Amino acid sequence: xxxxxxxxxxxxxxxxxxxxxxxxxxxxxxxxxxxxxxxxxxxxxxxxxxxxxxxxxxxxxxxxxxxxxxxxxxxxxxxxxxxxxxxxxxxxxxxxxxxxxxxxxxxxxxxxxxxxxxxxxxxxxxxxxxxxxxxxxxxxxxxxxxxxxxxxxxxxxxxxxxxxxxxxxxxxxxxxxxxxxxxxxxxxxxxxxxxxxxxxxxxxxxxxxxxxxxxxxxxxxxxxxxxxxxxxxxxxxxxxxxxxxxxxxxxxxxxxxxxxxxxxxxxxxxxxxxxxxxxxxxxxxxxxxxxxxxxxxxxxxxxxxxxxxxxxxxxxxxxxxxxxxxxxxxxxxxxxxxxxxxxxxxxxxxxxxxxxxxxxxxxxxxxxxxxxxxxxxxxxxxxxx
Length: 385
Fold this sequence. Notes:
CATH topology of the largest domain: Creatine Amidinohydrolase
Shape: elongated
Order of helices and strands: HEHEEHEHEHEHHHEEEHHEEEEEEH
CATH architecture of the largest domain: Alpha-Beta Complex
Distance between the termini: 47 Å
Number of strands: 15
Number of helices: 11
């Protein structure tokens, strides 16, 4: 198991307490990340599958027959119902709900779930016409807000993987190097350093203009003066730490050096301000307004940080935006929250994985915070020879 059973059960009990507060009889859980959090197991959405956790009594899970063995290996669930691929999953789940006596219950559902399509929801309502389905407004995501000691340990391990991988790519960057080569190195290094294999989501592209953060990977050889933008998104047992760095091919132009140093200075202040009790919009303002005042950005339309933690290997969501840093973010930071804090200016970007500690933000990613040059690697290689 990825976690001790006591930790999973503590999560379930917190959920049950919330269900009782909301006067809900049960919660239907079908999103990949929520399944992993409460059941210690997830599967793809090729076929609908779901678990039901009641406020009182034993939970159950319904899934394809072919997926039973992986469920048994990981999950604490003892009561499960299976279906062959030619049966309708909704019919099977509805029958199990009726058998459990919930045919007239108030059952919570998460309308933010990607697994719960409109078609599936309508089918559930037809099968269970007397059930009152109540939207819980992302409750499974909100309950993941504070990371346990075991979760933080996984994020520490993933941060070591991201640091080591980034260092290797930075040292390999030179004229003629391609974004695709860097992407290949990232996938290989993630697995070699102990991360989950075949991790998707990294963004490796040429840093040009203002809007390169979500750019495509290209095969064009890098030339003198180009900037290689690298955002690495590895996972360790599903937990993702993230980092951004840029490498200038050749010497760093003075204007990029000044811009990068100012961005880092502002983000350093932002991280220091990430103390328990701080208001998110105040932390956001340090980076956002500072970048605008310094002329690093002419406008700042994106968030300056978002939630990190467990991410499904299906990568339906590239980021967890349950808790984000925006000018109107009124929520309060708490010890144990973890974020990807990032910023960018014309041609350059930088980011860190940050834990909210008792005295402020603590960087879990430890790589040097600076703009790199490919000429550094060449000089180091020459000196070593």
